[in-house]
């Protein structure tokens, strides 16, 4: 396969990376909203160029967050706070460097936001020669019969509550969406890890991926990366985007696979205290 040159990072490319991250989260929230009666109270609203995602009854803060906040959205901060306050939901705001400014930082502080942690955005071009699947492991797209198993591996690998709505209904919706690709990594007859990918407008967003704790260190994540990169090529994607914790094992694995660090963004939290 011909190697494609890595594009240079620009503000325009950074915006593409942030859009992909938002698209991934928006897609998963849309799937959750398809539960009968929308019991998790999913709402999505635009405030200027910013997108606010809310799952009012979802037990994880990650699905309550604002993307693409910039200085232009300062006048919308009160509206954004009211949007989440009506559900009594704490939420996060992702502040990427290309949208940040001292004026925005000051406004967030004045509105009671607290700096929480950093998150790193990486990007690359599909090149499967950079990473190989380990012997004895196989990665396959899931079938409808494996949706429940996928949910079990998902919650076990991420060490999250078993009752979160990722175990069947939401993943059935994603399975039926041609933009989404869901995978399990198998060691023999045992599913030991999972991964997700969404492809929109030729950009492959590598969503969550994790390995069950007792099977970590056996190459599952490399195998899942290899499969997603291969499928991204097959689907005609020209860019791969992924987010991870700065300096983590995932960060190092992605760099070995040819991903370049684009930027590290600050994650702010807004808590509503009685």
What can you tell me about this protein's structure?
The chain has an eleven-stranded mixed β-sheet with strand order 1-2-3-4-11-5-10-9-8-7-6, with helices on both faces. The chain contains seven helices and eleven strands. A hairpin with a 2-residue loop joins β8 and β9 (203-211). The longest helix has 23 residues, at 11-33. 30% of the residues lie in helices and 30% in strands. With 274 residues, the chain is α+β, with helices and mostly antiparallel strands. The radius of gyration is 19 Å and the shape is globular. The N and C termini lie far apart (58 Å). α1 crosses α5 (169-175).
Which structural traits does this protein have?
single chain; about 270 residues; alpha+beta; 11-stranded mixed beta sheet; about 30% strand; globular
Overall pLDDT score: 92
Rg, Cα atoms, Å: 19 Å
Number of helices: 7
Characterize the main sheet: 11 strands, mixed
Gross geometry:
globular
Structural class assignment: alpha+beta
The ordered H/E elements are HEEEHEHEEHHEEEHEHE
Low-pLDDT runs of 5+ residues are: none
- Provide the β-strand percentage band: 25-35%
Please report the distance between the alpha carbons of the first and last residues.
Answer: 58 Å
Number of strands: 11
């Amino acid at each position: 396969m011909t190697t494609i040159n890595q594009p240079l990072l620009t503000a325009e490319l950074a915006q593409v990376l942030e859009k992909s991250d938002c698209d991934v989260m928006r897609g998963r929230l849309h799937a959750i909203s398809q539960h009968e009666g929308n019991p998790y109270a999913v709402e999505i609203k635009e405030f200027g160029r910013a997108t606010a995602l809310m799952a009012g009854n979802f037990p994880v803060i990650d699905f309550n967050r604002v993307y693409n906040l910039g200085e232009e959205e300062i006048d919308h901060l009160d509206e954004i706070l009211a949007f989440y306050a009506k559900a009594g939901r704490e939420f996060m705001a992702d502040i990427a460097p290309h949208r940040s400014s001292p004026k925005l930082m000051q406004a967030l502080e004045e509105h009671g936001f607290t700096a929480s942690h950093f998150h790193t955005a990486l990007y690359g071009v599909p090149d499967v020669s950079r990473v190989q699947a380990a012997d004895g492991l196989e990665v396959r797209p899931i079938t409808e019969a494996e949706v429940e198993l996928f949910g079990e591996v998902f919650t076990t690998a991420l060490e999250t509550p078993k009752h979160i709505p990722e175990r069947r209904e939401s993943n059935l919706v994603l399975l039926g969406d041609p933009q989404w690709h869901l995978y399990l990594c198998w060691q023999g007859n045992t599913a030991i890890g999972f991964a997700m990918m969404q492809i929109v407008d030729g950009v492959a967003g590598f969503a969550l991926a994790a390995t069950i704790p007792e099977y970590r260190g056996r190459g599952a994540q490399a195998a899942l990366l290899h499969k997603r990169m291969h499928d991204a090529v097959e689907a005609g994607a020209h860019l791969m985007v992924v987010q991870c914790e700065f300096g983590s094992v995932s960060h190092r694995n992605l760099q070995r696979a040819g991903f370049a660090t684009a930027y590290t963004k600050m994650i702010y939290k807004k808590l509503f205290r009685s």
